[in-house]
Amino acid sequence: MKRNLKVGVVGATGMVGQTFMNILEERKFPMAELRPFASDASAGKKIHVQGQDWTVQTLKPGCFDGLDLVFFSSGDDISKEWAPLAAKAGAFAIDNSAAFRMDPSIHLVVPEVNGHLVNSQSKPQVIANPNCSTIQLVVALKPLADKFGLEEVRVSSYQAVSGAGIAGYDELLAQTADYKNPEPENATFPHPILFNCIPQIGSFNDEGFCSEEVKIMKETRKILGLSDLKVSAFTVRIPALNAHSESVWVTLKQKTERAQIVESLKSFNGIVFQDEPQKSVYPTPRNVSGEDPVYVGRLHRDPENPYLWLMWVVSDNIRKGAALNGIQIAEHIFDIKPQA
Ligand SMILES: NC(=O)c1ccc[n+]([C@@H]2O[C@H](COP(=O)([O-])OP(=O)(O)OC[C@H]3O[C@@H](n4cnc5c(N)ncnc54)[C@H](OP(=O)(O)O)[C@@H]3O)[C@@H](O)[C@H]2O)c1
What we know:
Layout: E1 5-10, H1 15-26, E2 31-37, E3 46-49, E4 52-55, E5 69-72, H2 76-88, E6 92-95, E7 107-108, H3 111-114, E8 126-128, H4 132-148, E9 150-159, H5 165-177, H6 211-224, E10 230-237, E11 244-252, H7 258-266, E12 271-273, H8 285-288, E13 294-301, E14 308-315, H9 319-333
Parallel strand pairs: 1-2, 1-5, 5-6, 6-8, 7-8, 9-10, 12-13
Antiparallel strand pairs: 3-4, 9-11, 11-14, 13-14
The site of NADP nicotinamide-adenine-dinucleotide phosphate has 30 residues, from helix 1, helix 5 and helix 9.
């Protein structure tokens, strides 16, 4: 068991990077050193974490020397180039980008779901953190997969602007401040996001799926270890600031009762079941933003098919969907108990 780790964060000034800082602080992550990295524009800035100021650096040869752990949240190209160098320098490189997720030689990890893939005996390596929408989906599906078996999953997402980084967040705030403008400027999203829903996250393939949908479909199979699972996804950007929501249709292999599903969800580490629809009690992105768990509600059976269940899954895409999951992977590897 190793204590007081030397930790790097690449993309430390970004949406996910800033949340890394908050969570390292909140969970009293045992650190001897923090080395924040960002672009030239941020070099020299100070980041205050755990009572000390740490100076933002740029990436350069040898910059990971002596580190035990490096979190990456700067996009695919930077991760592709630098994460293997961090592992080569002897650090665990926990990568939030999509660069390595579907590489068969790289583990794609959500600790509550497939944490057994890495442990305190693992050697420094690149470990991929899944897509934010995938993480909350697989956490909600895992207890159902274990107890009842999964036949098919269909999901439609309602994704917050924070999923597009600081630029996406700022674009919604700017459009809100200027809400009477009939033609607001949009640079991050393909259309104005205010008072709108945009059925496109990423670029489209020849079959009509956008890249976010393909990520959810492929990553879900890999994480659950169910290569034949039927998964279909439809992703939509909405003008919520933070926390992604998903309506999920899951067909189970066994016929079961609602109470059994409720019990399996409630007893699963990392899930909060919030379901009193008559009182309008169910998770919403406003309430879930800033929280760690995956929230599940609106659980009900399809009237035509007794194997088919519907549920509503909401989680903070920057916390469980990115930074928190990465830190939980590190806690799992280094056998650290969070002291929140
Ligand atoms: N937002 C989410 O919900 C979410 C969820 C899961 C995964 N992710 C992934 O996490 C990554 C970051 O997302 P984000 O939302 O945090 O983006 P963001 O807010 O745009 O932040 C990007 C970060 O990368 C840094 N950066 C840019 N160029 C760099 C360079 N040449 N060298 C070092 N650092 C550089 C930026 O530094 P400056 O401030 O100096 O420009 C900033 O710290 C992406 O791969 C994204 O797909 C995001």
